Amino acid sequence: MAPSEVVATALAPQKIKRPRDPRLDFFRGVGMLIILLAHIPSDGWALWIPARFGFSDATEMFVFQSGMASAIAFGSTFDRSGALMLIARIAQRIWQIFWAHIVVFIVVAAIMVVAGTRYDGVSYVDSLNLVPFIKDPGNLLVGLLTLTYVPNYFDILPMYIVILALMPVMILALKIQRFLPFALMISLWLATQFGLTRLPAEPWSDRPWFFNPFGWQLLFFTGFFLMRGSLPAPRFDRRLMALAVGVVVLTIPFAWVRFQEVHPFFQMAATRLAPSTDKTNFGPLRFVHFMALCYIAVNLVGEKGSRLRGPVVRVLTVVGQQSLAVFITGMVIAQPIGIALDHAGRTTDAEAIGNLFGFGVLIATAYLVRWFKSSPWKS
User: In a 10 Å sphere around its CB, with 0-12 CB exposed, 13-18 middle and 19+ buried, how is residue 17 labelled?
Assistant: First the structure.
């Protein structure tokens, strides 16, 4: 190599790939399995997911961890190439997620049509409230494409699209003033709590999106700025750990339906707490509960995930690394699994086979997508 080429190589900008955080990928993988259980209709295993014992659930895991992953993916783009390339990359991602949302809707709607009627006489189309779309697909296709028609089962990806669109604003706000993005996050969240940011979910009623992105962005950008280092991550402290454990334990009687069946006090308390645990607008107690769980989990797995070892961890890590493809697959297969359980009878064995089959499909999807992304045909 000529001296001039050596100098040119040395001066050329080097791509330094930031190592993935094993905790992020592992917990994303866990979250994908929980989300599948939550979406299989009338699944007995869903009675034992974390959402049944506390105010937060797998949705918080998905949103928070998406914020952290976005800090690695999109934050580095801004650092390396500036605001224009950041906006371009986010636009590309929004484009991908938008069409993923459309495809998932069409595929699931087709499955529901083919499935026919449930054992109780209710059509599968009606079980997802898709009858209006089947009766008037022409007008509602426009609503589907403009996100003004968002049935409840299909509401997470639209929320994610809006939150992604807010990301350049938050990053640029941080460049202007250190505390500005946090003021914007809190202002949007407060506006949501007062009903000022409702987005229409269907043209024939005033029902809003089930997940209001202007409320949920608080959690997304908390994860985003924690990963960016703009928010300091709390270190291990026995008193803080005791407080986190106390929060998680004390919420169980007000979240677990078994307690509410034992004594009316718990039912009345849960009713009074409902505005603070509201899922649509992301009530404050959901945030507190999830951050307490997060603090416990992060410290249990050791510094930088040092205790995360073994074949199960490796498999769940791969699932977490391909979370978008796995999430979409889970949304599609959850309904056929529920339909199969309706026909097979919801016995303990049938539910175990159905859920384990679902887990297997998600794991296979993750490994297949990873294989495609490695472009083996280039070797």
Answer: exposed
Compute the distance between CA of residue 28 and CA of residue 62 in angstroms, rounded to an integer.
7
Side chain identity, residue 329 = T
The token pair that represents 11 in the structure block:
């001066």
**pLDDT recorded at residue 15:** 47
Q: How far is CA 103 from the centre of its chain?
A: 18
Any idea what the Cα angle at residue 74 is, between residues 16 and 376, rounded to 5°?
60
Contact status, residue 158 vs residue 150, Cβ threshold 8 Å? yes
> Whole-angstrom Cα distance, residue 27 to residue 47?
20
Distance CA 273, CA 172 (A): 36
pLDDT of residue 4 exceeding 80, the answer is: no
Residue 277 contacts residue 51 (beta carbons within 8 Å): no
345 pLDDT tier (thresholds 50, 70, 90)? confident
Asked if 362 and 319 count as a contact pair (C-beta separation under 8 A), the reply is yes
Task: Tell me which residue of 159, 160, 269, 254 sits closest to 209, measured CA to CA.
Answer: 159
Cβ neighbours of 140 (radius 10 Å): 20
- Return the closest-CA partner of residue 61 out of 38, 93, 92: 38
